[in-house]
Amino acid sequence: MKKLEVIIEKNDGLFWGRIEDVKGWQPSPYGNTLGALINNLKDLVGDYVLHEGKDDKKWNKIIWSEIELSFKYDLVSFFETFNYLNLSVISNKIGINRTLLNHYKTGTKYPSAEQAKKIEDAIHHLATELKKVKLVA
């Protein structure tokens, strides 16, 4: 299965997507939700292939049932998508101020690449911990 990476950002109340590392036409879908963004992406590609992209070998070969979408998020879109995550817990795991993490969440401040990596690592560690949980009834 072919993988297509979509970078997700949140701006002006909308989720925006972009696809990098593709020569030629690069769709930039948007939507109120991640699902709407994905539907918009499929519509954009379909329209492009029917019109100006008739000869574009890359996009003409897209069969959505054979595509695995993967996502990279900016922190604003990440925390909106996964809004159930507790900022205090994450900030404690990383060792950064919770207020600063909230600024990243709202987009009033932006992390350095190093700081974003620390946040990503903490989230992955949390996911690893959760995968070990076993519940009983």
**The CATH top-level class label of the largest domain:** Alpha Beta
Largest sheet: 4 strands, mixed
What is the CATH architecture descriptor of the largest domain?
Answer: 2-Layer Sandwich
Main β-sheet, spatial strand arrangement? 3-2-1-4
Distance between the termini: 38 Å
CATH topology of the largest domain: Double Stranded RNA Binding Domain
The helical percent reads: 40-55%
Per DSSP, the total helix count is 6
- CA-based shape: elongated
**Percent in strands:** 15-25%
Q: What is the compact description of this entry?
A:
The protein has 137 residues and is α+β, with helices and mostly antiparallel strands.
Give your account of this protein's structure.
This protein has helices spanning 34-50, 57-60, 75-81, 87-94, 98-106, 113-131; strands at residues 2-11, 14-18, 30-31, 67-73. With 137 residues, the protein is α+β, with helices and mostly antiparallel strands. It folds into two domains: 2-73, Double Stranded RNA Binding Domain (2-Layer Sandwich); 75-131, 434 Repressor (Amino-terminal Domain) (Orthogonal Bundle), CATH 1.10.260. The mean pLDDT is 91. A four-stranded mixed sheet has the order 3-2-1-4. Helix 4 (87-94) crosses helix 6 (113-131). It has six helices and four strands; from the N terminus they run βββααβαααα. A hairpin with a 2-residue loop joins strand 1 and strand 2. Helix content is 47%, strand content 18%. This is HTH cro/C1-type domain-containing protein. Residues 93-130 form the HTH cro/C1-type domain. It comes from Flavipsychrobacter stenotrophus.
